[in-house]
Amino acid sequence: MKLEQNEKPLLFSETVISDIFFAEYFPQIPGDYLKIYLYLVFLSKYNKEVKLNDLSKKLSLPLKTLSEGTKFLEENGLITKKTTGFIIVDLQEATLHKLYSPNMTLSKETIENNSKNKSRSKAIEHINNMYFQGIMGPSWYSDIDLWFKKYNFDEQVMIALFDYCFNRSALHIKYVQTVADSWGANKIRTWNDLENYSQKQEKLKNIKKSIAKKLGKHNGLTQYEEAYIENWILNFGYDMDIIEIALKRTTLKQSPNFEYINTTITDWHDRNLKTVNEINAFLEQRKKQLKDEKDLKTKVAKSNYEQRKYDNLDFLYANNKNEGE
After folding, report:
1. Which residue in 8, 60, 78, 118 has a CA-CA distance of 20 to 30 Å to 90?
2. pLDDT-derived band of residue 244, with 50, 70 and 90 as boundaries?
3. 198 & 257 share domain
């Protein structure tokens, strides 16, 4: 593996880590991968061949970790892969290119000058001071401006987005972007939208926990089981009182599973049953129908038996009569 870096005059040759790295990349890099990156930056100025086996021994890291680490660094724009090895990305140049490329949002000053109102600039400044100790990386400004435009978040929602990620120790661009996408997909625009969404999510969380407990799933629910529950609640509009009716009916089965519960609840939804009373009335009617069908089958079977008995006696009577003659 060969490491390369843009050539610089000898006077400026040094192992330098830019502040951009600490502001935008450092928090999200796992420890071993950070170790790999820093050592690659150190070696890159010598423009020499570096063997992974030697690097593995030098850093006391398995080859698998080195492979996964270089892949992570490449995916996050810290190194660029070439046929002969890797190039260490100039983060200052890359950030500058991002900020001033066409169709991209601009720097902090531009955003503050072009914001629709002062409250947006205040929200950005609050995020900077509250969650970045006043040294938020330049690309964050362009991303925030992009999210304002793309999702139409109001200022309170934007601050709540960063607060949500910060409290989960996940204040890095990919995670914040994922949460922003989720909120946007759920049509969150205002603080009231976010409050309603949060209440639904909390309700969903409690229902999942309750279902897992009732079914004895102490290790938690699978991803597919959670998807079933979300469908019942978010799409069907059912509450725990209705779901519990389906759970109780699993006692009628020897090996109940989520497929059975989902089939039952989906059938109720397809029949446009929306309340506990409607579902209980349907189940009572179904129970009566099954009883009537069972009674009818019993009567038919009894009638058939009596008819066969009569036919047998008639046959026997006919045979006796013939023998007498």
Report:
1. 60
2. very high
3. yes
Conformational region of residue 80, where left means phi above 0, alpha means psi within -120 to 50, and beta covers everything else: beta
Sheet holding 79-82, edge to edge: 2-4, 85-88, 79-82
Domain boundary among 158, 189, 220: 189
The helix/strand/coil state of 154 is coil
Nearest to 268 by CA among 216, 231, 294: 231
| In a domain? residue 58 | yes
- Contact by Cβ (8 Å): 115, 107: no
pLDDT above 50: residue 97:
yes
* CATH number where 28 lies: 1.10.10
Dihedral pair phi/psi, residue 239, rounded to 5°: -105, 180
**Same-domain check for residues 176 and 199:** no
Residues 255 and 313 in one domain: no
**Quick check: 51 pLDDT over 70?**
yes
Q: Domain range holding 84?
A: 2-95
* pLDDT 10s digits, 54-89: 888 888 999 899 889 888 888 888 888 877 777 888
**214 CB burial (10 A radius; 0-12, 13-18, 19+):** middle
pLDDT, residue 130, reads 92
Please state, in angstroms and rounded to a whole number, the distance separating the CA atoms of residues 40 and 15: 10
Closest of 174, 201, 170 to residue 186, by C-alpha = 201
Residue 53 or residue 105, greater confidence? 53
Q: What is the DSSP letter of 187?
A: T
> At residue 252, what are phi and psi to the nearest 5 degrees?
-80, -10
**Which amino acid, residue 323?**
E
227 in any annotated domain: yes
Q: Which residues lie closer than 8 Å to 39 by C-beta, 6 or more apart?
A: 55, 58, 59
Residue reference for tokens 């579902």 = 279
